[in-house]
Structures are given as C-alpha cells and as structure tokens.
Amino acid sequence: MNYQAHAASKQSVLALVGAGFGMTLVTKSQAEVVFPGVAYKLIAEKNAYLDVQLVWAPENKEAVVGRFVAFMRDEARSRRLA
Q: Average model confidence (pLDDT) for the chain?
C-alpha cells in the first residue's frame, strides 16, 4: 500500500469528516467548534487506547518528524512491557 502525505488544516480535516470520510481525534478545546456533520464523542475511559501506525522515510530531512516517530515507538514499547 502506498501512502501519500497531504498538507491539511484542521478545518479541511473536519470538513472531510463531516462529509463522511472517516473520523479524527481533536482536543477538547477544538471540540467546542461547531462543524456541519461532525459529532464529537468524549473518550472517558481511563485506559482507552488507539492503535496508531506511523510511517517515516529515513531519508526525510524533517528531523522533528523522525524524533516524533521515535518517541511514539519508544512509548509503545514501554507500555507493552508494563
């Protein structure tokens, strides 16, 4: 499967969700914004989790992205061992 990155604003993502193209996570403060076709659901479970798959090409020059992927990988590993 090929992945493509697209620059998108929060409004663009919420517009896609409102049009029926999936779902997204937002912060509580973002959920205050009324957006047509979007329903916000609070995740209140103490041990709620989300399966996340991250892809990063090592030749990518964005060091911040690489550090974020490494952080998420290490965090996932530490939680699996707990």
A: 83
